[in-house]
Amino acid sequence: MSKQEKKLFIQTLGCQMNDTDSQHMIAELKEHKNYTTTQNIEEADLILINTCSVREKPVSKLFSEIGQFNVKKKKSAKIGVCGCTASHLGHDIIKRAPYVDFVLGARNISKIKDIVDKKGAVEIDIDYDDSTYQFAQNSNNLYKTSVNISIGCDKECTYCIVPATRGDEISIPPEMIIEQIKKDVDKGAKEVTLLGQNVNSYGRRFSDKREKTTFTKLLQEVSKIEGLQRIRFTSPHPLHMDDEFIEEFAKNPKISKCIHMPLQSGSTKILKAMKRGYTKEWFLNRARKIRDMVPDVRITTDIIVAFPGETQEDFEDTIDVIKQVKFDQIFNFKYSPRPNTAALKLKDLEIADEIGTKRLMEVIELHKQHQSELMDKNVGKTVTVLFESLKPNGEVAGFTDNYCQVFVKGSDELLGRFVDVKVTNATRTALKGEVVDK
Ligand code: SAH
Ligand code: SF4
Ligand code: F3S
Predict the structure, then answer these.
(1) How far is the CA of 425 from the centre of ligand 3 (A)?
(2) Which of the listed CATH numbers 3.40.50.12160, 3.40.50.1240, 3.30.390.10, 1.20.1530.20 matches domain 6-123?
(3) What is the Å distance from ligand 1's center to 300 Cα?
(4) Which atom of ligand 1 is nearest to the CA of 338?
(5) Looking at the domain covering 382-435, what would its CATH class be?
(6) 163 CA → ligand 3 middle, Å
(7) pLDDT along the chain (438 residues), means of 10
(8) What is the residue with the minimal CA distance to atom 21 of ligand 1?
(9) For ligand 2, is residue 163 a contact (CB within 6 Å)?
(10) What are the MTTase N-terminal domain coordinates in residue numbering (predicted)?
């Protein structure tokens, strides 16, 4: 080997886009700089922390964490701060923690192979366009792959820092997406997740001048890939869930029947203040249409409680939507004021923390009841599962077509296969069962 092998320790926070960004950085560093990953920070030559700034907590944790990394690391090891917090804090990171070697913002990660050797470099340009960059390949799950279909976000949700950290939305050309998925399928992938901050606004702007297209068309193209058996995507926006999209979702057998519908609030007044672009009625209408057209669909959501100005009545609207839709999974958040967001102007309307906590607990309790009810309905049914991992306790884990996690007793011969399972037991978050057909 010409160059000496070096070790990379990487910590990833935040969303699935950050996960793929980390995978891309790992692959680039492996291909161009001879790095392999390690879980042991003490032997690392390079420590990367890929950050998230969507809520306040992870940001305040960042500095104590990199401080600890600095204590544990080898003397010669470098530290790089990447991702969304890198985008918005930029130079301040090195000012506050001078032992940090470089700062690399989200949307700039294709520069990783160059920046690792530039002490003090800060690359955080949110207009940088790496939508056509051919990243080196790295696979961490044999049967599943994730492919970015766009970068950035054009929405202006008033609570959200993402447009300020990831810049404007640019779609990745369909032929690049298809080629990437084909390569992964050749290596054994059965399932793909298409990723973007707002996937169903896909196709409106590309790096080059080309005809516009739509997410529904992309789904149709992706589903033609031979050998690919399951398609997932996240996050779609309820506003763009038009009839054409819902019909494709319902009738395309390759599309996993689990859909994320980020509600945020059930109150039309608050939705307006959040600039979400839809009303309570629109959301309910879309959810109903999906439930009517797709019998076993699972619907997941994100909810923010205590957005500035949220009255008890507004909150009751959120509870009402939860009761009507009965989400299969809810990711709950208490509003967290973020820099560079329009909602900061609503400071005077901010809700007392105790009220926020109380509302959050109410959502959690109601959701738990729904989860038990919905999951119990699976007992006795036969479901098809794509198995993907072996657990230390001798169980094999996988996901159904509507993306419910299932555990069975079995061995590695189940891995990578779609197998029928009879469900014998349900908890709020997973199913247990027995293989009925090998
Ligand atoms: N683009 C995706 C998700 C972006 S961030 C979408 O629109 O669905 C993931 C979730 O974090 C959001 O859906 C929202 O519920 C939550 N979130 C974003 N900003 C927040 C803030 N300032 N306070 C609390 N939760 C927030
Ligand atoms: Fe943020 Fe809204 Fe864009 Fe999602 S759609 S990333 S919540 S601005
Ligand atoms: Fe966090 Fe950035 Fe994703 S702020 S949620 S890592 S887009």
Answers:
(1) 35
(2) 3.40.50.12160
(3) 14
(4) 22
(5) mainly beta
(6) 10
(7) 82 94 96 96 97 83 91 96 95 95 96 96 96 86 92 97 96 97 94 97 95 97 97 97 97 98 98 98 98 96 98 98 98 95 97 98 98 97 96 95 96 95 97 88
(8) 336
(9) yes
(10) 6-121
The answer to whether domain 139-256 and domain 257-375 are alike in fold is yes
Q: Which fold has domain 139-256?
A: Transcription Regulator spoIIAA (3.30.750)
Of all protein residues, the one whose alpha carbon is nearest to atom 2 of ligand 2 is 157
* Most ligand 1 atoms within 8 A of CB, residue of 53, 54, 198, 200 to mutate: 54
Q: What is the pTM of this model?
A: 0.95
The atom number, within ligand 2, closest to the CA of 276 reads 2
CATH top-level class of 257-375: alpha beta
- pLDDT value of position 137: 83
pLDDT of residue 37: 96
Ligand 3: distance of its center to the CA of 380 in Å? Answer: 39
Nearest-ligand number for the alpha carbon of 15: 3
Residues 147/193, Cβ–Cβ less than 8 Å: yes
The three-state DSSP-derived secondary structure of the chain is CCCCCEEEEEEECCCHHHHHHHHHHHHHHHHHHCEEECCCHHHCCEEEEEECCCCHHHHHHHHHHHHHHHHHCCCCCEEEEEEHHHHHHCHHHHHHCCCCCEEEECCCHHHHHHHCCCCCEEECCCCCCCCCCCCCCCCCCCCEEEEECEECCCCCCCCCCHHHHHCCCEECCHHHHHHHHHHHHHCCCCEEEEECCCHHHCCCCECCCCCCCCHHHHHHHHCCCCCCCEEEEECCCHHHCCHHHHHHHHHCCCECCEEECCCECCCHHHHHHCCCCCCHHHHHHHHHHHHHHCCCCEEEEEEEECCCCCCHHHHHHHHHHHHHHCCCEEEEEECCCCCCCHHHHHHHHCCCHHHHHHHHHHHHHHHHHHHHHHHHCCCCCEEEEEEEEECCCCEEEEEECCCCEEEEECCHHHCCCEEEEEEEEECCCEEEEEEEEC
Distance 407 CA to ligand 3 centre (A): 30
pLDDT at 437: 67
CA of 210 to the centre of ligand 3 (A): 29
Q: Ligand 3 pocket, 162 CB below 6 A? A: yes
Q: Is 18 close to ligand 3, i.e. is its CB under 6 Å away?
A: yes
Q: What are the residue boundaries of the structural domains of the chain, listed by start?
A: 6-123, 139-256, 257-375, 382-435
